[in-house]
C-alpha cells in the first residue's frame, strides 16, 4: 500500500495541569504532511505549535488521538520504540538545546548518525558545507554565534537523512542571510522527498511553503 502521508496527526488532544489550572494545549488537531511537501505552521505564542511538534516527534504523548509515522502508529508505544523510530525517521529541530554542549559540531553530527546505525562522513562534510559551517567543525556550541548554533541544530537534525523534518522556529534569532540559507536547505530537502513541517513566525518562510496551516488556542483554524 502506498503511503500518502509521511506523518499524520489524527484528532490530537493534549492537556496540561498545574494545580487547579488546566491548559488545553491541543484540542482535536488533524494534520498530514506528504513526502516532498513543506508545510508552515503559524500561530500566536501559546497557540500549541511546539506541543504539536513534540507529539508528532513522539517526544510527548497525546492525551487523545494518535500519530502515524510512515503509516505506522507512533503514539502510545513504549518510549524506547518511539525513541528508535524518531532517531531513524525524524529530524527534530527544537527551539533550543539541539546540540550536546560538551561535543564539537562534527561529533554532534556523528552521534546523531550513530544513533541510527549509519555513519556517512561524506554526508557530514556536505551538511557542514551546505550550512556554511565547515570552518567550525571542531567548535563546541558555546564557541558558535547564535546564527551558527541555529544552522548547526539544523545540520544535526538532518544528519540521519530523515524522512520527516520537524522544525520549531528555525529562523527565530537569525539574520536575513541566514534565513535565506536555512530556507535553501529546506528546499533541497523538499526536492529530495523529505516531509517538512515548520512552526514559524516568519512570513518569508511561510511564503515558500506549499501550504500554510494556522493554529489558535490549540486548534487548526485555517488552511
Ligand atoms: N509542559 C507544560 N506544562 C504546562 N503547560 C504547558 C507545557 N507546555 C506547554 N504548555 C502550555 O501549552 C500552551 C501551548 O504551548 P506551546 O509551547 O505549544 O505554544 P507555541 O505555539 O509553541 O508558542 P511559541 O510561539 O511561544 O513557541 C501554552 O499555554 C503553554 O503555556
Ligand atoms: Mg513554541
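-> sequence recovered:
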Amino acid at each position: 500500500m502506498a503511503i500518502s502521508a509521511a506523518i499524520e496527526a489524527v484528532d490530537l488532544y493534549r492537556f496540561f495541569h498545574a494545580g487547579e489550572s488546566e491548559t488545553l494545549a491541543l484540542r482535536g488537531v488533524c494534520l498530514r504532511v506528504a513526502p516532498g511537501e513543506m508545510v508552515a505552521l503559524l500561530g500566536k505564542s501559546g497557540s500549541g505549535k511546539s506541543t504539536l511538534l513534540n507529539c508528532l516527534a513522539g517526544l510527548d504523548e497525546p492525551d487523545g488521538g494518535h500519530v502515524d509515522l510512515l503509516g505506522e502508529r507512533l503514539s502510545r508505544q513504549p518510549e524506547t520504540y518511539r525513541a528508535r523510530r524518531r532517531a531513524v525517521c525524524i529530524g527534530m529541530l527544537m527551539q533550543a538545546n539541539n546540540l550536546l554542549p560538551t561535543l564539537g559540531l562534527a561529533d554532534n553530527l556523528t552521534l546523531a548518525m550513530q544513533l541510527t546505525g549509519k555513519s556517512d562522513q561524506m554526508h557530514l562534510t556536505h551538511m557542514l558545507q551546505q550550512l556554511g559551517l565547515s570552518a567550525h567543525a571542531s567548535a563546541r556550541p558555546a564557541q558558535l554565534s547564535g546564527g551558527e548554533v541555529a544552522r548547526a541544530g539544523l545540520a544535526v537534525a538532518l544528519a540521519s537523512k530523515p524522512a520527516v523534518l520537524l522544525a520549531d522556529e528555525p529562523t527565530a534569532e537569525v539574520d536575513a542571510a541566514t534565513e535565506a540559507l536555512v530556507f535553501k536547505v529546506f528546499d533541497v530537502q523538499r526536492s529530495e522527498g523529505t516531509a517538512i513541517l515548520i512552526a514559524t513566525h516568519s512570513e518569508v518562510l511561510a511564503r515558500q511553503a506549499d501550504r500554510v496551516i494556522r493554529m489558535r488556542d490549540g486548534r487548526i483554524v485555517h488552511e
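The pocket of magnesium ion (ligand 2) is lined by residues 49-50, 95, 168 (CB under 6 Å).
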